[in-house]
Each structure stands twice: as structure tokens, then as C-alpha cells.
Amino acid sequence: MEQKREGERLLQSICSPLKCWSKMKGKPAVPHLPSTSIIHLLVDFQWKLGMAVSSDSCRSLKYPYVAVLLKVADHSGQVKSKSFEMTIPQFQNFYRQFKEIAAVIETV
Amino acid sequence: MAGELEGSKSLSGLLSGLAQEAFHGHQGITEELLRSQLYPEVSLEEFRPFLAKMRGILKSIASADMDFNQLEAFLTAQTKKQGGITSDQAAVISKFWKSHKTKIRESLMNQSRWDSGLRGLSWRIDGKSQSRHSAQIHTPVAIMELEIGKSGQESEFLCLEFDEVKVNQLLKKLSEVEESISTLMQPA
């Protein structure tokens, strides 16, 4: 994955694949970066903690979830929104991964 | 004929088939398929109301997300009803719910989520070691790939880049979410 941005940049993976690639539970350890992926910068991160109470297929849902709205910009400056939901365990995994990123990036 | 509808192995299979069709979105499980596979000696006319009764019971249990006390009370009431179920059938249904409850509940949760879900997450840290316009050396960036998708649809991959400042900013937001969750989960 080479993204030509301002100037030249030598992308150098510092960490070994095993240390750096971290997948959610159940997924293979091989890193996936499709060639069609454009790298975005995060412009805004909004969140909401919701509780699904009831639905037409289940009267007693009672599950909390985290809804996220991301605003991301590509290299041309175009901003788009992406939203998704996470269950609480998924969010906790997301948070844990991010703490790991913070710990590693600090040491580099 | 009624005796053939009481076999517990067949009923267990029937409940699995019903769950696949009603909760896990498996297409093509018709009443004729269930009858021919599990109750071949029973006529369709007799099988149909039996199937409807079992489907109704399973849906009631799943819809109320019954715990085991509620389940026992509910099934006992069903055994006492006119045209209800036998105590052997109640035992099979009880066993089925105990072992499939979590998976059925997960399917029901997925069915009620209409926004995209987070299917996968991977990341790596890159070192920016050279730049034409600036003397940036050893500026690490985190590249994160999010796999998101709606139920039954193909995944979309979103690649994000964070420098250390952005990582810490986002980490702060995530800790606010975590705090909200803790507050929500506290007993009243």
C-alpha cells in the first residue's frame, strides 16, 4: 500500500507482523489491506451509547450498544461520514486495540 | 399418529430447523422439508398445526428472552393447556433453549440492527522516515483498517491514519464512552 501524498514518503513497517497486526476475534492473522483502500484522516468522532429495548421480532431485546459517527477526509480534502454500531464487547475490544496502538506508537 | 409426534429426537431437530428459519435467516426450510425429514410417517394435515404450535412456543420464548425460571413456568402452563404439549416435549424444548439461547439472542440482536456493524479491525504502525518537503524523521503513524458492513451485505473497508496526537485525542473520547458504559451498567 503506497499512498503518494505530499512529497515522498518511505513507508517503513517498524514492527513485525505478529506484533503489529491485531485482528478481532475469529479473523485470520494475515493482514488485509485491499489495494482500493484510500487512506483517510479522521476529522471528527461522535459517539452515542444507546439501549435497544424492544423490536417487532423480539419484545425483550435489552441490549446496550455504542453507535459511532466518523467524519473522514481523503487526500483531496473531501469529507464523508461513516456510521456503525458496536456491541459492548466489540467496543471494549476496539478500545483495548486503541490503547495498544497508543502504547506502541509511544515507543517508536 | 399422535405418538409419532412425541419423539424427542425429531422434536429437537424440528426446533433446530425452526430456529434456522426464524432467527438465523436460513432460506428454504419448508414445512414439507421438515415433515419429510423428521416426521415422515405423519400426514401434512396433522403436521401443520403441530409445527405452528412449536413455532409459536419457540418465538414466545425467544421474544421474551426467557430466563430459566420464566421458561419452566411457561412450559408448565403449556403442558396444562388444552391442545398444549406433553411434559416430554416440554423437556426437549427446555433443553433446546438452554443450549441455543445465546446464539438465537445474538441473531435477534443482529436482526434489529439496521446500521452497519463493525466486523473487523486491524492496524499497524508505520514510521515516516523521509519527506521531500520537511525534515520529518521518525514520525510514527498508525494505520487502522475498519471492516464495516450491514447484515447480509458485503463489507466495506475504511483505512484511517493517525499520528500520535490524534491517537491520544481519540483515546480520550473512547475513555468517555467507557465511563458512560460503566455508569449505565451500575446497578440502580
UniProtKB/TrEMBL annotation, chain B:
Span of domain COMM: 117-185
GO BP terms in the entry: copper ion homeostasis; negative regulation of protein localization to cell surface; negative regulation of sodium ion transmembrane transport; positive regulation of protein ubiquitination; regulation of proteasomal ubiquitin-dependent protein catabolic process
Cellular component GO terms held in the UniProt record: endosome
InterPro entries referenced in this protein's UniProt entry, alphabetically: COMM, COMMD1_N, Murr1
Similarity remark: Belongs to the COMM domain-containing protein 1 family.
Protein name according to UniProt: COMM domain-containing protein 1
Organism listed in the record: Ailuropoda melanoleuca
